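anyone seen this seq b4? input:
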Amino acid sequence: MLRLRIGFVLIAMVLSVFGARLVQLQGVDPGAYAEMAAAEGMVDVVLPATRGDILDRNGEPLATSVDGMMVIGDPALTAPQAPEIAKFLAERLDVDYFTILPRLREEGSRYEYLARRVPATLANDVLDEADQRGFEGLTLQRDPVREYPADDVAANLVGFVGIDEALAGFELTFDHMLAGSDGSARYEAGGGARIPLGDSTTVDPVDGQDLHTTIDLDLQWYVQRVLRQTVEDARGDSGFAVVMDTHTGELLAVADDPTFDANDPGEYPRADRVSRALSDVYEPGSVEKALTLSALIDAGKVTPHTRLKVPGSLTRDTRTITDWFPHGMIHLTLAGVIAKSSNIGTVLAADRFAPGQLRHYLTEFGLGAATGVGVRGESRGILPSGSAWTNLVDDRIAFGQSLSVNAVQMAAAINTIANDGLRVDPSLIQGSATMDDGTVVGTDRTTVRRVISAQAAHETAHMMERVLDPEDGVAPLAAVPGYRVAGKTGTAERVDSACGCYRGTTVSFAGFAPADDPAFTVYVVVHNPRNGGGGGSVAGPAFSQIMGFALRRYQVPPTGTQPSRLPVEW
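predicted toks r here
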């Protein structure tokens, strides 16, 4: 009987404890305890958005997202083998051992990123090998990988992304539209696996928008190869080339050399990962003479037949101006001044400008102002003003020294002559897109303004045709067989920032074709050629190859008319 009573007392005590606990859970604070229980088994997951593609004018990808995976660790399962798993992942993936080791041991966590944007095939191979080694707690989740199918083609414009952020080029400038918005998921898990009927919430990701450029992938590829060969053959430091649609201003190619592979940017110097065609400033040299003389014609000061007596040297303000070729007194027409690329003849003609008139025209041509095509770090160039514009500077600017430009800026200025005297804004983005600083750019924002009359543009084009004449011109190697071509060479002293002096040269050729009905403007620049060549012999042949390819690619027929025969001497 005593044993029975003791048993009843013990049972009553146990039931009392259970009852008190039940009252606490269901009556005193049921919500808090339910929340604590749920939290122990809830997992928060990021659902990555797919980044928008960067496309060429025909819809071909310059940058795209392909299948990839992120490697996820569940510390509740990986902690016991954390050092071994960290060593394994560091050997097989591009991750740091000391970074992921604490993640594999994170107390209270069931979800830790270990590697992002791993190619799907590699990720699956790694997971299979991990299973074979007996490693527990590793899973995979979709995580698109950025890929640049054309490797170095337009890489200086397109840029690249890192593991978690955009780092350069269009990828960075238009990141807010390309990136989209990641989604999220929260679900209940137990034993390292999702509970099928457990609580869950999902916010779907919003994929990024595509960015459509004006670049022609195939033409860009060709221009880069011609440019690379040109720079190598000339033993130059660097170079760039631009192809522009004469009427729309769309940039079909903007090439830089040296360049880099956007799939592996870390293997290349920082200087090679920007667009020199937009960030570099340099003195354009004699290409600028086309702007000076076209402005003179527009102002009614001269005609292509204007006669000039050109001495072998010209002393102005204690400085002596010479030509690239030695000569005594020669008699040139204005067309001859361009054909022979005479500095002295250009200065004598420019004396007819009213004060400030040349600067006004150059500003209208777009010099001294950024083109605003949507590339970060674009330079404005330098166009002196006020007291900096002395008589000596005025003379030097007339033939292309003492001012600085970028390549796209100068191409757009020459294109103004090709486009009947109308300057059309250059564009790199089709439609419109907003840069990270809020600026809206693109073909929808293109503006057009008249700089010189159509008559002045046509007369200048006729003079520029004489530059390529095999007998009277300085650049017969720039000719494109079967087509009329107008162009201008450039050779300028190059500023060396190390010494603050002129050292080396910049050579170039700019032109358009067909000369009497232009479709494209092409501009080629090479810095510091060491083979002794000038604009006609170094940049001229590259211009010929690029222009010929563009005309054939877009099936532009020859006009069938006779080239200009303006007299160069009198």
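DSSP finds 19 helices and 26 strands in the chain. Residues 305 and 333 are 5 Å apart (CA to CA). kinda curious what u guys think
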